[in-house]
Amino acid sequence: KQAEKAVHQKKEQSKTKCRKARRRHVNLVAEFNRRQRKNIWLETHIWHAKRFHMVKKWGYCLGNSPTEKSYRASYRAMTKHCLLQDLSYYCCLELTGKENELLKQLARICSIDAGITFQEACCLSGRFEGSLNLYRADRYPEDMLGPVTFIWKPRDGSEHRQLWIWVHPALKQDILRELKAIFQCSEPEEICITEPVTRSLQEENQMEVVLSSGKKRKKEDKEGEKAVPVKKIIGDGTRDPFQSYSWMSQMTGIAISDRSMEILRYRLIGPLSHSVLTETLKAASVQTV
């Protein structure tokens, strides 16, 4: 009886996969998705994770400080070469609508006494990026929300304009709530509940081949049943994937969209930054239909 009891109490040994199986693309994506369920990774996460001490802030996993004991490499890059920073964790709020209506309502959350506004001529044309401090509607100089940067889409001859406002993830919810209030955007533009994960076509084909053969590489879960195919996480650290990400105002005609993690943002610092951009970016040939 004691022997039978010991056999029943013995836990099943975990089946650890060999390194070759762990390094397969399908298994890597599944493991990476599992590790970023709570904190989203940036596009450059793998590169930073090998060279930086990572911290979890604002729903993201960010590189805090380099593992090197010397900071001379970064200082030398800033002063003599080029240093790149990944700022993709900054949240992008997109506003679309008539220019007059946009400027009329945006003037309520900023003041010319504090510096430039959204009506600045050089910024309004779309040639330059501007920065300012936002306040609660009609509350300047009290109740400051925080600093933001913005850029207008260049004019195309229409009164319909497009504006991108970049905010820190810690300030996103307050600023988004204030923008929806001044533009009276209470209803979502489209009720689109996106699944938090989607499967790529290539990975789906791989799973079909595996399941059709039924001999090897058959993915099974702990219960021995067919496992869920590998999927890719969608969303960002500041937004629930099951919440709406676009709002429309029926009265003003202004649409607000949350473009966080949809537009990557990098910052180049150093005297050779312009040379790096010149060598990296190539002008596309304009084709007229």
UniProtKB/TrEMBL annotation:
Membrane spanning residue stretches: none
Superkingdom of source: Eukaryota
Annotated Gene Ontology cellular component terms: nucleolar ribonuclease P complex; ribonuclease MRP complex
Location of the Pop1 N-terminal domain: 4-97
GO biological process: tRNA 5'-leader removal
One Pfam entry name: POP1_N
Protein name per UniProt: POP1 protein
Designated gene of the protein: Pop1
